[in-house]
UniProtKB/TrEMBL annotation:
Signal peptide: none annotated. It comes from Burhinus bistriatus. One of its GO terms (cellular component) is microtubule organizing center. It comes from the Eukaryota. Pfam families: HU-CCDC81_euk_2 (PF18289). This is CCD81 protein. Residues 5-77 form the CCDC81 HU domain.
Length: 115
């Protein structure tokens, strides 16, 4: 579409992560470079987002699996229970933080970020 991209504000990321701007920029660029390299080679990838969930990329399939407590915080416990009861497929979008990430894939083989 006609959406404009906004540059990433490294200083805001650095402040939120309590690191220098240079460190934040270096980590972000390194991660995106490695992610791009793995995807270019056709590797399956899992990007673990601390306290949020796991972004799985297998071939052309991209899926976000959220930790239950994140969805509960966003919607409230009662609302989440009602929605899951009405739409049980939402359970496929949830994952426990203690589940081995490789078990979420069809192949069981993937590159996990961050290490």
């Amino acid at each position: 579409g006609n959406k404009e991209l906004e540059p990433l504000k490294y200083s805001k990321v650095a402040t939120a992560a309590a690191v220098s701007r240079q460190k934040a920029e270096s980590c972000i660029q390194g991660t995106t470079s490695l992610l791009s390299h793995c995807l270019g080679k056709g590797e399956n990838v899992a990007l673990v987002l601390k306290s949020v969930g796991v972004l799985l990329i297998e071939g052309t399939k991209v899926q976000m699996k959220f930790y239950h407590n994140v969805l509960e915080r966003l919607s409230g416990k009662e609302n989440l229970e009602k929605v899951v009861f009405k739409v049980p497929q939402l359970l496929d979008m949830m994952v426990s933080p203690v589940v081995p990430v490789a078990s979420l894939t069809v192949s069981g083989r993937l590159v996990i970020f961050p290490k």
